[in-house]
Design goal:
alpha/beta, Aminopeptidase, 8-stranded mixed beta sheet, two-stranded antiparallel ribbon, 8 helices, 30% helix, 19% strand, globular, hydrolase, signal, M14 family zinc carboxypeptidase
Length: 348
């Protein structure tokens, strides 16, 4: 796939892990400029405004909600095609790396499109919720900010887990989580064919002892229709392939997610869209640029394959060829983002 920007990591002189731990031993070298992995919400606002201005109207940026601390939640729309794709980044505030990938995608498609990008824009329209949980980002926490919270999912006195409050039965006006309500309102207004939700997870290995760099999954709630599930599985297969091709050592697995209908992955499948979870592994500071590139390649490949029709020719059952995620990385090197467990389930 075409990527106008490229990122750089200069770390090749030392291993990220101890000699006894599985490699990723060295950060891959990819030429180009580094991007900020954690822009502040004010920096994000300025960057989006700059993209909108430089795109001469190709990118439309709007606030679709406001957090409890008064921060705007931004959506950016680009494209003119009949197929509608919606991406969401950073529902969990301490899972940041999908956000800079989305910014670079908007730059490439909206500000500096070449022939390939123009073909994508002719085939699809993208809606990108860029950092769904800005309060959580600024506070470096998974949850939103709500000191009055007494949640079923979240932490009392801290906040709600936004990715448990997307149930089709929960109307936006009744949702106690403004971040989840904003995503749902944008979903209803945009009516996407495919919804993709970008998160981060801890560190895991596969059965061969190689580190997993990303995990993906389709809706697993039994109420999701066959057509929505097939499209989701096609998108998982395309995204996993793109991420594994992103850099040497990239290694995708399936994510062992649950069936709860309030998770975005399940909720938007139940609401009639293809729906995919992408979890970037927190493989350490020296791998962040490569992981941002991997998220970008997932985003671009899904848009490109939807635009040229190749997404719909993929065998949905090919998603079953992706291996299961293995055990946590030995030594406890879980990095920044931690997996979240609810009794008997490992949820998104």
């Amino acid at each position: 796939m075409k990527r106008n920007w490229r990122i750089v990591t200069a770390v090749t002189a030392f291993a990220l892990l101890s000699p006894a731990s599985p490699a990723l031993a060295d950060a891959p070298e990819v030429p180009g400029r580094p991007v900020d992995p954690r822009p502040s919400t004010e920096e994000l606002r300025r960057h989006l405004e700059k993209i909108e201005k430089r795109s001469r109207g190709a990118v439309d940026v709007a606030a679709i909600g406001t957090t409890n601390q008064g921060r705007p939640i931004f959506n950016a729309t680009v494209g003119r095609g009949p197929l509608r794709l919606m991406y969401v980044t950073q529902q969990h505030g301490d899972e940041p790396l999908g956000t800079p990938a989305a910014l670079e995608l908007l730059e490439d498609l909206g500000v500096r499109p070449g022939r390939d990008e123009r073909a994508v824009l002719d085939g699809v329209t993208l809606s990108v919720v860029v950092r769904a949980n800005p309060d959580g980002h600024e506070l470096d926490q998974r949850y939103n900010h709500d000191p009055d919270a007494d949640p079923e999912y979240g932490e009392p006195g801290v906040g709600y887990d936004p990715n448990r409050y997307h149930s089709p039965a929960l109307a936006p006006e009744d949702n106690p989580v403004p971040e989840a309500a904003a995503v749902r309102r944008q979903y209803e207004a945009f009516d996407p064919h495919l919804m993709v939700d970008y998160h981060m997870q801890g560190r895991y290995i596969d059965d061969d002892g190689e580190e997993i760099t990303a995990s993906l999954m389709w809706p697993t709630n039994d109420g999701v229709g066959d057509g929505e599930r097939d499209l989701s599985r096609q998108a998982v297969a395309v995204s996993a392939r793109a991420m594994e091709d992103s850099y040497d050592g990239a290694n995708a697995s399936l994510y062992p997610g649950g069936t709860y209908e309030g998770i975005a992955r399940n909720a938007y499948g139940l609401l009639g869209s293809g729906s995919v979870l992408v979890e970037l592994s927190a493989t350490g500071p020296d791998m962040e640029q490569a992981q941002i590139a991997s998220a970008y390649d997932s985003m671009y490949a899904l848009a490109e394959s939807a635009a040229d029709g190749s997404l719909f020719a993929v065998d949905p059952d090919s998603a079953d060829d992706i291996p299961e995620r293995g055990e946590p990385l030995p030594g406890g090197g879980q990095g920044q983002a931690q997996p979240f467990h609810v009794e008997g389930d490992d949820l998104d």
